[in-house]
Design a protein that fits this description.
The protein has no helices and 6 strands. It is mostly beta strands and 71 residues long. Strands 3-2-5-6 form a 4-stranded antiparallel beta sheet, with no helix packed on it. Strands 1-4 form a two-stranded antiparallel sheet. A hairpin with a 5-residue loop joins strand 2 and strand 3. The protein is globular. 3% of the residues are buried. The model has no long low-confidence stretch (mean pLDDT 88).
Length: 71
């Protein structure tokens, strides 16, 4: 349905700002949020099925993953 649970584990620093960004294959940002808890529900139901890039930004690092939206 275009929603998923994102759980931040121990690999990410517990202090400081953590931001989530999702980009489509054309490099356009389709979602952005500051993560305030270790678990967040992400709603991208307004986006078409396909591959997306998920970035988690901390004060010193960027973690990148590829995700597939399939409803």
């Amino acid at each position: 349905d275009g929603k998923f649970m994102l759980e931040i584990g121990d690999q990410y620093p517990s202090s400081g700002k953590i931001e989530l960004e999702i980009y489509n294959m054309m490099g356009e940002e389709i979602y952005q949020s500051e993560l305030k808890t270790s678990q967040s529900v992400i709603n991208v139901s307004n986006q078409p099925d396909g591959f997306y890039f998920l970035n988690i930004r901390t004060l010193h690092e960027v973690y990148a993953k590829t995700i597939i939206i399939q409803k």
